[in-house]
Amino acid sequence: MKIKSTLSSHDQPIINIEVNSQYDPKSALSEENIQFQREDSEDIKSHILATDGMVVIDTQMYFTKPQTEIFEINDECIVMDFVSCTNIEFQIEQLENEKYLKQNTHNIFYTTKYKGTFKIPAFEKVNYLTIIFSKEFYFNVINEDWKLHEKFSKNILIQKSSYLTSKYLPFTSSIQWIISEIKNCNRKGALKKMYIETKIKELLIHQLESVVSKPKQQEKIDSEEYNKLLEAKQILDNDYRNTPTLPELSRKISLNEFKLKKGFKACFGTTVKSYIIKLRMEHAKELFQNNSTTVSEVAYKCGYKDVSHFSAAFKNYYGFSPQKFKINTDIISFWIIGFSFFL
User: Fold this and answer.
1) I need a surface site. Which of 17, 218, 234, 338 has the fewest CB within 10 A?
2) Are residues 102 and 147 in the same domain?
3) Residue 13 has what pLDDT?
4) Is the Cβ–Cβ distance between 25 and 37 less than 8 Å?
């Protein structure tokens, strides 16, 4: 399986890799960092993880002049696509898609031969995570006969290019959290491969859950209102330490409080308040992985002025106090370091 990405401003591909399409659980995980910079006019960073049958590409790009990216894969593949940018016009051959990518959305698609054209405007920060599977690898991750996956699976088996769902769906907080864990993983060797593959399976579960819940979410919400709710979610995602009050959030997105509360619950399966707590608690969990961080520091970084309020929220969310969680995290970290030493 050959994967290539070419930009209109470059003579040579910025990504040009090849992996074996066959699934091999014993194959090693390789890692590569790619970076191009041209003064203030261009900044390209790409982090690539690859093993037999699977490639993970995390890319950030910024240009002062419009660019066109051509992304190609020479063999049939399944792609888990996570987009953290907007205003990118795109077209994937063999597939019917929306004209523009939307920020913080995701989908899965299958194609017999991938060729995507992405028109990138000037001064737009591009950020996407793409996970590419060979067909054999994919069906080792998920059972091809699973009912939830049945239509998409059949299309793969008869080599019919298709999306898992007709439209890109918004990130859930769980998807954002797992993406962050994949991007920030600092493990090495066999442990890193085990960790990354586990996280990819988690991502797939959450993507499929999004598909199941989507029809109910959209039944009573028109597209204009839905976009406003996505905007509200993005405001909370961007700064969950200093979140606006419900009336302030309502004014920011030009949607009354009743529709905001009802629509947010319908679309994202949780209330605005619960969603903020979830974001803060997941960030707290991440911060506790740093052994030198105190509970009071974590409370402050998560938007709590009172440590006791943070501790109560943490215990209510996870079922035990932050002090106990921190002790357990320290023990697990010590075990992993010791295990790595003996590998």
Assistant:
1) 338
2) yes
3) 93
4) no
